[in-house]
Amino acid sequence: MRLAFLSIGRHIHTERWIRWFSDQGHECHLLTVQPGDVPGVTVHDIRRGFGPKPLRYAFSLAEVRACLRRLQPDLLNTHFLTGYGYWGHYSGFHPNVLTVWGDDVYVTPFENALKNRLARAALGSCDALTGDSADILAVSATLGADPERSFRVLWGVDFEVFRPADAEAWRVAHGFSREQIVYFSPRSYTQPYYNIDIVIEAAARVAAAEPRARFVFSGYEGDPAPFAALVAKAGLTHRAVVVGRLPHAEFATALQACDVFISVPSVDATAVSLLEAMATGRAVIVSSLASACEWVVDGVSGRVVAPRSAGELAVAMLDLAASDARRRELGDAALAVAREHAGFAANMRIVERIFAHLLEGAPWPREASLAALQAGKGAGSR
Fold first, then answer.
1. Which end of the chain offers a freer environment for a tag, N or C, measured as fewer CB atoms within 10 Å?
2. How much of the chain exceeds pLDDT 90, in percent?
């Protein structure tokens, strides 16, 4: 197949997704305003025009249309509803499979009437929709997506990289001993809804009660300096490490080296970092979002707390500090869930089946559809 992708460039989600199809022998083209080399993929820079953003969007749309006419792909896969999803819709190209990511569904369509209309247009016109939780698909359905053509596809985990392993050397290199309890918060520094300020507040409470507690804060994007200042203000300077983006391979090692993974945003789809933490057998603490609770059951496969409750978070953190056996029990349960549902290749084969339906009339992957998940008949319904 000749496949065209409209997506955010220089992003690991985009690269892993497209390279999977390239590795299967398909001809792959990436159309983006963030161009960069992707092995095995032809990258097209669609940046055009100058001046205000609406004008630049219009010029880029013209370039998208021209590029699709030149390429004549068999199928277009558009990633991220905001911006790219609009271009995919107004390109008029079909079949167009739209993949939503997170705040492009949860936040942007509700900011104003224009963005709501644009979201509804793109969601209503796509030939199929994928998203990484039943919840994000359900919200998309309220905006006009067809539940029968909406499919849960996780970003997926490479189990060869993200697996239980001894990472004592990483702990030692960062000043942590085997006896200490290391809590790891790896969410982006860019958006307030990731609630890193709440994690720091809870960490201060935990540090006052648990002398073994140590903390690692990393962000895959954004400036760590403001959060390092919060850590210092909370009196945690000598008990916490604050870093920026960790390389993907080192991120796996950091997960293996920590004792507890923390992700407590107010808004999110299924965080791939959560699935990766589960795949390493870590005890996890997540916020009570529907997308997280698809995978984590409180007290069974992790701990679940309210998104902006430093008190609840501190209690959960102390609960997990109290017992090595408890952390192992929850981590083992999380690992089993990840192994059953979160494999990267298995999820990409769902996308492949969607493409095959649209191009060849093969059966839909009905077990992954929102309709089946809501009826409790889908794969991994919980």
1. C
2. 94
Would you kindly state where each structural domain of the chain is located, as residue ranges?
Answer: 2-156+343-374, 168-341
Give residue 220's pLDDT.
85
Is the pLDDT at 34 greater than 80, yes or no?
yes
On the 0-12 / 13-18 / 19+ scale of CB atoms within 10 A, 214 is buried
pTM score of the predicted model: 0.91
Q: How far is CA 334 from CA 180, 222, 292, in A?
A: 22, 29, 12
Tokens representing residue 318 in the block? 């102390």
- Taking all residues of the chain, what is their mean pLDDT, rounded to a whole number? 96
- Using a 10 angstrom Cβ sphere, with 0-12 exposed, 13-18 middle and 19 or more buried, the burial of residue 155 is buried
Write out the two tokens for 97: 């499979």
112-142 per-residue burial string, b: 16 or more CB within 10 A, e: under 16? eeebeebbbbbbebbbbbbbbbbbbbbbbbe
Closest CA to 151 of 160, 169, 138: 138
CATH number of 168-341: 3.40.50.2000
Residue 91 buriedness (CB in 10 A; 0-12 / 13-18 / 19+): buried
